[in-house]
Amino acid sequence: MPLVALVTANIVPLWGVLFLNWDAFYIVILYWSENLVIGSYNIVKLMLAQPLSQCEQKNLIEEKAKKPSLWATGVLFHISKLLYIPFFAFHFGAFTAGHGFAVMMMFGKGDAGFGQIIQNDQVWPCFLVFIQLLFLVVKNVYSTIPINMKYCIVALFVSHGVSFVYHYLYRGEYKTARLETLMGQPYSRVVLMQIAIIGGGFVSGAIGSPAGLLVMLVVVKIIIDIKMYLRQHRIEQGHTTKNDYTD
Fold this sequence. Notes:
Number of domains: 1
Largest sheet: none
Shape: globular
Strand content: under 5%
Helix content: over 70%
Oligomer: single chain
Structural class: mainly alpha
């Protein structure tokens, strides 16, 4: 089911290229917006992650008095979220802001809001300026893309949501997820997409956004998503585990 939702959401851009005359910018900015989807779900994953394995939790319930250290471990685990979650939100948000700003500039879509910060002298303090930039980039993207692309972004949210509910909640991955693992998972996917898709989108835009090349980009993205899904969820050759999952 999650894999079907993933493929379906990725097929939607093909319709945009073939029938709605989407150019390279629309394809690239759509895949950039997926960073926001992934980052949002990852924050929820961090919030719901549990400190103990299912077996340890069972032992803890049966032998509370004999295993006081597990209680302490659990408390420290949840306290550590107060550091992990804000750090991830800031760092990944800044990373996404810089990425989005670069896309907008390279496709000639204005200053993506950065000039507004300088001109109005309303710079947020210290490193928070990157979060401010993220909000402005999102605002500019939202005002630039057509309504049908907004539906596409909703489809991405639904696709990743299906995977999140099925794997992380239903299959109980939150019981074995580790904060340090969750912190790094989105970056590997984003970097791979930048190299394989975003770079190709820039090339396509430079030569006039031919539909054939854009279709190839969408197909390559679907193939990469499927391969990453199978690897990350460890279902290659019918083998499954419940460790180290991600969308």
